[in-house]
Structures are given as structure tokens and as C-alpha cells.
Amino acid sequence: MIKVLKGFATILSVFFVCWAALALADTSGESEEAQFVFGTPDQPSEAWLLAAGGRIYDNWWDALDRKEPTDTHPAYPESGRKTGSATWRCKECHGWDYRGRDGRYGEGSHFTGIKGIDGAKGRDPAQIAKFLREKPHSYSAEMIKDDELARVAAFVSAGQDETARFVDPKTGAVKGDKKRGEAIFQTTCAACHGFKGRLLNWGTSEEPAYVGTEANAAPDEVLHKIRNAHPGAAMVNLRVLPIEDAAAVLAYIKTLPQK
Length: 259
Ligand code: HEC
Ligand code: HEC
Description:
Layout: H1 2-38, H2 46-58, H3 60-64, H4 90-94, H5 125-133, H6 146-158, H7 178-193, H8 211-217, H9 219-228, H10 243-253
Helix pairs in contact: 2-6, 2-9, 5-6, 7-10, 8-9, 9-10
The structure holds heme C (2 copies).
């Protein structure tokens, strides 16, 4: 009787090992993509580091696959118009052009009166990271781990673009070479967004949001995403190319369909 049970247990464990191996093999494709979106390369290049930091600046819980906060950031001003998780995004207080109250967020629904991060360019990343753990920021290690905080600190120190050179702070008008932008878009972005930029829609069918829609509504945001990619998505970024190329793409996609 015991022998039979033992035999049965052996067969069961063999089945289990096979099942586990199959399960692992099954998800390996998926985890390669997750590795690209959320993971770290073995030898991170400067370009990878800065773009990864830029995505944390955009939206750290989407960039890092973390729990979205539910409360309002304690340092978000009462006079501000946002509540909840939005107020935990670096960009919400400091702007897509990194200039806070002196840039595009100097008025309108995103106004907070908080200064930009452009004054921190060139500062020691270790010091920036330490500063982000303390008040008024209070980012805990549960929210953003040490190595991740080092990425966003590297972005603050060495990854900020001079967005105002390409996106007018007052009017949002874009300076860029449309012809070159068209060539880059057709050979790169179109693989996922389609030639007309309508293949991906993050809006609804009644109110679509395409690259063309977004580039017209928030050109400084789109420039940031072209340089750093969209957090949580398997998207490319143009961090290694000259900033003029990203501005060229932005100028071109403003001409794409918005509806
Ligand atoms: C709720 C609003 C808010 C959010 C969100 C926020 N900050 Fe700040 N940040 C502030 C305020 C307020 C100051 C000014 C602090 C002071 O002057 O003492 C500041 C200052 C800074 C500075 C110093 C700028 C200088 O010139 O000295 C840096 C760098 C910075 N923040 C980076 C970040 C990063 C990176 C994130 C996201 C991980 C972030 N902040 C998220 C409110 C915010
Ligand atoms: C490999 C596929 C891929 C490529 C190539 C790609 N993207 Fe994306 N992009 C995505 C995905 C996926 C999303 C997320 C869409 C969503 O949220 O539904 C996205 C999102 C975006 C968004 C913003 C979404 C938002 O919510 O604000 C913009 C803007 C954008 N892409 C522009 C570009 C531009 C410009 C290029 C070329 C430089 C490009 N993308 C190349 C896959 C790609």
C-alpha cells in the first residue's frame, strides 16, 4: 500500500515539474517584454538611464508597476485643481518643460505656483535622491526603490531637455523640421502608431486621442514622451538622437489627424 502511494507521489511530482517547466516556458515571451518595460539592462547605458528616469518623472507607478496612490500629495497646494494620484506625479508640480510656474504650467488647470526643477541641473544625483525622500516630497522606498530613485535623480541632474527652445512657453507653438520629422515618424513611430497616427487610441471612439490629438493639445508632454517613451508601454524613445530630431517629429505629428 505504502509502495503504491509512493509511486503515485512520484508520478504526481513528475507531473508537477513538467507543468512548472511548461508554465515558465509559456510566460517567457511575455516576461521579455515586461523586462523591457519595467526591467533594467545588464549594462545600463547613459541614454537608457536618463530615459528611464524621465518615465519615472512622468508617472512613477506606471513606469515601475507599483500601486497607484489614492491620497493627495501633502505638498500639493490647496489652491490647485487636481486631487488624488495625479498630484504624486513629478510633472504635475514641476511641468513637462521642467520650469514649473515659469513655464507652461504658469497658468491654467495645472497651475501650482511651484518652481521648476531646471535649477537642479548638474546637481549631485545622490543629493537629489536624498532630498526626494524627505519633506516636502516624502517618496518612500515602497513607492520608489533606491535604484529607481537614482534614475529619476540622474534625469533631474543630466536629462532635462531645453523644451522651451522648441515649444513656446506661452503659445505652445513648435519649432522643428517637419520634413525630417516625417521621415523619422514613417520609419519608426508608424510601426505602432500607423502612418496617420491612428493605430493606437488612448481615448474613446467618440473622443479619440491619437498622437496628432496629443501633439496639438500638449506639445511639451509629447516632446517628453518622444525623448523618454510612455511609462508602462513597450514604446521606443529617441533619447540617443539629437533633441532636434525629437522636435522634428513633434512638429510633424502636429499635422496628423486629431480625430
Ligand atoms: C506635490 C508637489 C510636488 C511633487 C509631486 C514633486 N515635487 Fe519637487 N518640489 C516641490 C516643491 C514645493 C519644491 C520646492 C521645495 C523648496 O523650495 O524647499 C520642490 C523642489 C524640487 C526640486 C529642487 C528644485 C531646486 O531648484 O532646488 C527638485 C529637483 C524636485 N523638486 C524634483 C522632484 C521630482 C524628481 C519629483 C518626482 C519624483 C518631484 N519633485 C515631485 C513639490 C513637488
Ligand atoms: C513599439 C511600438 C511603439 C513605437 C515604435 C512608438 N510608440 Fe508611442 N506608444 C506605444 C504604446 C504601446 C503607447 C501607449 C498607448 C496607450 O496608452 O494606449 C504609446 C504612447 C504614445 C504617446 C502618448 C500616450 C499618452 O497617453 O499620452 C505618444 C505621444 C506617442 N506614443 C508617440 C510616439 C512617437 C512620436 C513615436 C516615434 C518616435 C512612438 N510613439 C513610437 C507604442 C509605440
